[in-house]
Amino acid sequence: MKKLMTPLLVAGALVLAAGCGGSEETGAPVAADSKVVALTQGEFAGKVQAALAAKKTFQVVTTTTDTDGPATFTTNVRLAGASADVQGSALESTFVRVGGTLYGKGGQLSSDPKKPWVKYDPTGKGTGKEATAILAGAMLQLLGAQLDQYRMAVAASPYATDFKSEAGQPVDGVATTKYTMTVNVLKATQAKAFGQYLTSESAAQSNLTELPIEVTVDAESLPRTFAYEADGAKVSGTFGKFGEPVTITAPAATEIA
User: Fold this and answer.
1) Are 143 and 93 a contacting pair, CB within 8 Å?
2) For 49, what's the count of Cα atoms within 13 Å in the CB-facing half-sphere?
3) What is the layout of strands, in order, in the sheet containing 233-240?
4) Residues 48, 223 contacting (CB under 8 angstroms)
5) Per-residue pLDDT averaged across 207-219, rounded?
6) What share of the chain has pLDDT > 70, as a percent?
7) Nearest-angstrom CA–CA distance, 199 and 207
8) Do residues 248 and 85 lie in contact, with contact meaning Cβ atoms separated by under 8 Å?
C-alpha cells in the first residue's frame, strides 16, 4: 500500500486517521512551433481547464519514484460541469469517486471476497463508527487522494510566485510549450486547488512551502505532461486519451462492506 503514496500523503496519514498570489507575465514567448502560443499566468488555468472540459474525458498515467522505487497510478477522469467522476488503479487497488463519494477495493481495504468494496462518504452519511470502519475510511481517503493528482498540472498557476514559459519537447508527436512555475503551497492548499491530493494539513506535516512544477501544454491548451519533486519523491505524469469513452460507475450496494 505504501508504494501508492508520496511522502506528502504519508505525512497526512496521521491527520486523516485521527479524524491568489503571483503576478501575471506579459509578453510571453511563442513556442518554436508557431501553432503553439504560450499562455500567460493569468489565463493558464482557465484555458487548460476549459480545454479539458471540452474533451469531457481524459486519462492520466502518473509515476512516483521514491526510496521504494517507481509506482504507476492510472486515472480516468470524466468531467461534468464543475464535478468530476474519477477512477484510478495501481498495484492491487482500485478507486472510484462518483458524486463525491469514494469507493475502494484491494490491498488491505477489505478482506471479504463477497463485499470487496469499501465506501467513504466525506459528509459522514452512512459511515460506520466501528474502529475498523474508521480505519478503512481513513486509509481509503488517503490513498484515494491519488485521484486528484492531475490537478497539480491544471490548478497550480494562480498560486505561482514565479511563472515562465519556453518551447517544449513534442509529446506523442504534438508540439508543446513548457511552463515552469513555483507554487505557493499555503495559498494553493487553502484554496483547495489540489483537491484531496495535497491539503493544508499534509503540506504542513511535510513543512512544504514551495513546489516547483513543470507542465507541457499543446496548441489546444491541453496539458500533456507534468513533473515535480517534493519530500524525496519524483513525480511525473502524462495526459492522453482525450475525449475517448470511459465507464465510471459506483459499485453495487451488495458489493460494499
Assistant:
1) yes
2) 18
3) 117-120, 101-105, 93-98, 83-90, 69-80, 57-66, 233-240, 223-230, 210-218, 176-184, 160-167
4) yes
5) 94
6) 78
7) 12
8) yes
Which residue type is seen at 21? Answer: G
Residue 54: all three cell numbers together? 471540452
Rounded Cα–Cα distance for residues 66 and 78 (Å): 29
- C-alpha span between 86 and 171 (Å, rounded): 24
Strands 176-184 vs 223-230: parallel, antiparallel or unpaired: unpaired
Task: Tell whether the model's pLDDT for residue 212 goes beyond 70.
Answer: yes
Q: Report DSSP state, residue 153.
A: H
Return the number of other C-beta atoms located less than 10 Å from residue 26's C-beta.
8
The pLDDT assigned to 121 comes to 72
List b or e across 128-153, with b for residues whose CB sees 16 or more CB atoms inside 10 angstroms.
eeeeeeeebbbbbbbbbbbbbbbbbb
Q: Which residues share a beta bridge with 105?
A: 94, 117
| pLDDT at residue 106, rounded to an integer | 86
Q: Is the dihedral of CA 51, 55, 61, 62 positive or negative?
A: positive
Closest CA to 177 of 213, 211, 242, 222: 222
User: pLDDT tens across 116-175, in order?
Assistant: 998 887 666 554 555 455 555 666 766 777 888 888 899 999 999 999 999 999 999 999
Cell output for 148: 486528484
Residue type, 206: S
Q: Cα(33)–Cα(14) distance, rounded to whole angstroms?
A: 48
- Closest to 53 in 3D by CA, of 243, 247, 248: 243
| CB within 8 Å of 243: residues ≥ 6 apart | 55, 56, 57, 58
Nearest in space to 55 (alpha carbons), one of 250, 241, 205: 241
DSSP count for the chain of H helices, then E strands: 6, 11
